[in-house]
Amino acid sequence: MKNNSRRLFSLFLLTIVAFSVYSLVQKGQEYIGKDYFDSETFQSKLYEFTNNIGPLLLNPIDADEAKKAITVTDNEIEEHRTRYGSLSEQIENINSQYEDRISAAIDSKSTKVKTALIKERDAKIDDITKNFEDDEYIKAKIIDSKKRAIDDYVANVSNEKRDLLNNYRFFAFKFTDVDTQKTTTFGDVDSPAAFSIKYGKGRELLKSNSINSNYSNYDGNPWYDDSDIVSTRLEPSDIDQALIDKTYQYEGLITIPKNALQYAEFATDYKAFKTNQIWYSIIWGLGLISLILLIASWKSHKKAILESNNATHWIHKWSIDVRIISLLVTIWALFIGLLLVEDGIEYSYYRISVYQLLRFGFAFVILYLIIWIFLAQLVSVLEDLNSEEKLMKAYQNSLARKTFEKLQDLFLNRSIGFQSVILLGIIFLGGLGLAGALVAWHLFLIYIPLFLFILLPATLLFLTRMSYLNRIMKETEQMAAGRLSNEIKIQGKSALASHAKNLNDLRDGVRTSISEQAKSERLKTELITNVSHDLRTPLTSIITYTDLLKKPNVTEEERNSYIAILDKKSQRLKTLIEDLFEVSKMASGNIELHKQRVDLNQLLQQALAEHEEDITKSALDFRVNTPDGPLHAYVDGQKWWRVLDNLIVNTLKYALEGTRVYVTLRQHNGEAEFVIKNVTKYEIGENVEELYERFKRADASRHTDGSGLGLAIAQSIVDLHGARMKIEVDGDLFKVTVNVVSVY
C-alpha cells in the first residue's frame, strides 16, 4: 500500500514537471518577460491596421484619376476578340443558343416573342462581327469594363474603411504626408496612452500605396454581367502602372489611449494574455518545485516510477512489436493530453467557474493516466532491450515475425497464394473504384465495363472456390468420422481439385488399411489357432504314451512301440519349435547371411538327391529341367538350400499321387529362375497370399504332418537375399517361382 501511494505521488510530480517543460517550450518565449503589446496577437493586429490605413484612410485611390490612367494593350484586344473562338464559331454558338427558343415561339405561334428573339440574336451577331472588324469598338468596351471595375473597387474601399474603423476603434493616429504636409487624425492622440509607436523624425516612415494589396495581387479571373460584356476585378493592367507604384510616406504616431482599453475588441485579448501569463507562471513554479522534490529523493522516486508492477507484467505479455507500436501511440496520446491541459488553461480567462475547474482537472487526470501507461510500456520495452539474449527472444516471439512466417505459408502452394492475392486485390480495387465512381459520376463509364468483365467474374470465381472448399471440408469431416463411402467430386484443375484428389487417394488408402487390418486380425486369430493345434497334437501324444509307459503290465514289445512313438512326436515337436524360432528370426531380420558365389544347379541336384528315396516312394513323376553348365548366384548356400528343400518337401506332401511335378532352373533376363509346379491333392483357396503366413497349410483339415512354416521360411530367406518368390494357383495347378540375380 505504501509503495502504491509513493508511486502515485511520484507520477503526480512527474506529470506536473512534464506539462511545465512542455508549456515552457511552447509558451515561454511568448509570456516570460513580455507585455501584451509584445505578443504575436497584438502585433498581427497592428500590422493589419498599418497595412490598410494608407489605401483606406490616408491616400485612397481617386476614381477619376484612375479612370484617366486606364490603358488597353493589343493582347487584351486580341484576347477579348477570340475568347470564345473564331468569328464563325461564335456566330454558330449564338445561333444554337436561340434556335430552340425561336422554334418554340414559332410552334406556339407567338410572333412577338419570335421577333424579339430574332432581333436579340441578330444584335449579338452584329456585336461579335464588329469585334472582328473594329479594334476601337473592342477597346471602348474594355475601357468601359475597367471603369466599372474601378467603381466597384472604390465602393468596396468605402465598406472596408468602415469595417477597419469599427474593428480597430481602440487605435488613435495622427499622420502627416511628407510631400503635401496634409495631416490626417483619428481618435484622441493627445490623451495618456497605454501604447504608442512613432514614425519619422529619425525613425522609419510609414509607407503605403493607393491600391490595397488584397486587390493589386488579384489574379484577374473574368466575371460576366447581364449584357455579356466581360469585366474584371481591379488589377495592375487596368490602370497606369505609375499610379500603382506611387508610394506615399507619412510621419506621425499610432497610440492606444488608456481610456480605449475598455473596448471589448481590445479588452478580451488583453485580459486573456494577462490571465494566461499568471496561470503559466504558477505552473512553471509548481514544475520547478516538483522537479526539486524529485531530484532530492530521486532514488526512492526512481524505484517507485520504474519498478515493475502489475501493469508492467500485463503489458509484458504482449509481443515486443505490439508494445513498441503501443508505446508510439501512447507518445502521440501524450501530446494530445498536454494539448488538453493547455486548452483548459488558454480558455480559462473568460471566467473561472466550476465547469472550467472540472474541465482542467479532467484534462490533468487524463494526462496523469497517459504518463502512467507510457512509463509502464517504456519499462516493459526496456526490459527486453537490455541484453542481446532477451532481445533475440523478444524477436522470436514478435507478432511481426509470426505473421511473416504465416504469410510465407500462403505461398507453399504458389497457385493458391498468387490467386488469393490477385482476387482480393481485384475486389479491393473494385470497392475503391465504386467509391470513386460515386464521387465522380463520369467514372461510371469506365467502372461499368471493368465491373462486368473483371470484378464480377473475379468475385464469382472467389465465391465458387469458397463453395468448393466448403464441400471439401464437409467431406473431410465425414472421412474423419469414419464414413468413407462418398468420393469428393473433382472440379477442374485448380489446387483445390488436386487437394480433393489427394483426399480421395487418402480415403482409398484408409479403406485398404481397414481391410488389411481386418485381414490381419483374422490371420492373427488363425495363427493362434493353428499354433495351438500343431503344438498340442504331438504334446498330447507324448503325454498319452508317457502315461501308458507308467503302467506296470506293459509288455516289452509295447514299451518299445511307445518309445518309438514318443521319439517321433518329440522330434516333430522339436522341429516345429525350431522352425517357429527360425521363421520369427527371419521375419524380424535378426539373422546373419554368409553370402558367397554358389552354383545353383549343383545345389538343386543335391536337394533332389537328398529326397530321392521320398520321391521314388511318392508315386510322383518328377520332370527336372536344368542347364547343362553351372548357374551361379551370390547367396548363402545353406539358407538357399533350405528354400529348395522346403519347396521340394512341400511338393511331396501336397502333390496329387500319380501326377507330374515339373522342376525347372534356367537363366532368364540376368536372373536365375527356379520354378516348381504340381497338381495339388487338396483344394486351395483363391487367396494365394495367405499361403505365405505362418502355420498356414494348403491342407485346411491339417491331415498332414507339416508345420505350415515351409513357405513362410522360404519366403523370409528369399526376402533377406533381396530376391523374389511368387506363388500362382490355377485351379489345382500349384506353381512357385523364385528369382535371384545371377553372377558369372
UniProtKB/TrEMBL annotation:
<dbReference type="InterPro" id="IPR003661">
    <property type="entry name" value="HisK_dim/P_dom"/>
</dbReference>
<feature type="domain" description="Histidine kinase">
    <location>
        <begin position="530"/>
        <end position="728"/>
    </location>
</feature>
<dbReference type="InterPro" id="IPR036097">
    <property type="entry name" value="HisK_dim/P_sf"/>
</dbReference>
<feature type="transmembrane region" description="Helical">
    <location>
        <begin position="320"/>
        <end position="340"/>
    </location>
</feature>
<feature type="transmembrane region" description="Helical">
    <location>
        <begin position="360"/>
        <end position="382"/>
    </location>
</feature>
<keyword id="KW-0547">Nucleotide-binding</keyword>
<dbReference type="GO" id="GO:0000155">
    <property type="term" value="F:phosphorelay sensor kinase activity"/>
</dbReference>
<keyword id="KW-0067">ATP-binding</keyword>
<feature type="coiled-coil region">
    <location>
        <begin position="63"/>
        <end position="97"/>
    </location>
</feature>
<dbReference type="Pfam" id="PF00512">
    <property type="entry name" value="HisKA"/>
</dbReference>
<dbReference type="Pfam" id="PF02518">
    <property type="entry name" value="HATPase_c"/>
</dbReference>
<dbReference type="InterPro" id="IPR005467">
    <property type="entry name" value="His_kinase_dom"/>
</dbReference>
<feature type="transmembrane region" description="Helical">
    <location>
        <begin position="444"/>
        <end position="464"/>
    </location>
</feature>
<dbReference type="InterPro" id="IPR003660">
    <property type="entry name" value="HAMP_dom"/>
</dbReference>
<keyword id="KW-0175">Coiled coil</keyword>
<feature type="transmembrane region" description="Helical">
    <location>
        <begin position="416"/>
        <end position="438"/>
    </location>
</feature>
<keyword id="KW-0472">Membrane</keyword>
<keyword id="KW-0597">Phosphoprotein</keyword>
<dbReference type="GO" id="GO:0005524">
    <property type="term" value="F:ATP binding"/>
</dbReference>
<dbReference type="InterPro" id="IPR003594">
    <property type="entry name" value="HATPase_dom"/>
</dbReference>
<feature type="transmembrane region" description="Helical">
    <location>
        <begin position="278"/>
        <end position="299"/>
    </location>
</feature>
<dbReference type="InterPro" id="IPR050398">
    <property type="entry name" value="HssS/ArlS-like"/>
</dbReference>
<keyword id="KW-0808">Transferase</keyword>
<feature type="domain" description="HAMP">
    <location>
        <begin position="469"/>
        <end position="515"/>
    </location>
</feature>
<keyword id="KW-0902">Two-component regulatory system</keyword>
<keyword id="KW-0812">Transmembrane</keyword>
<dbReference type="GO" id="GO:0005886">
    <property type="term" value="C:plasma membrane"/>
</dbReference>
<keyword id="KW-0418">Kinase</keyword>
<protein>
    <recommendedName>
        <fullName>histidine kinase</fullName>
        <ecNumber>2.7.13.3</ecNumber>
    </recommendedName>
</protein>
<dbReference type="InterPro" id="IPR036890">
    <property type="entry name" value="HATPase_C_sf"/>
</dbReference>
<keyword id="KW-1133">Transmembrane helix</keyword>
<keyword id="KW-1003">Cell membrane</keyword>
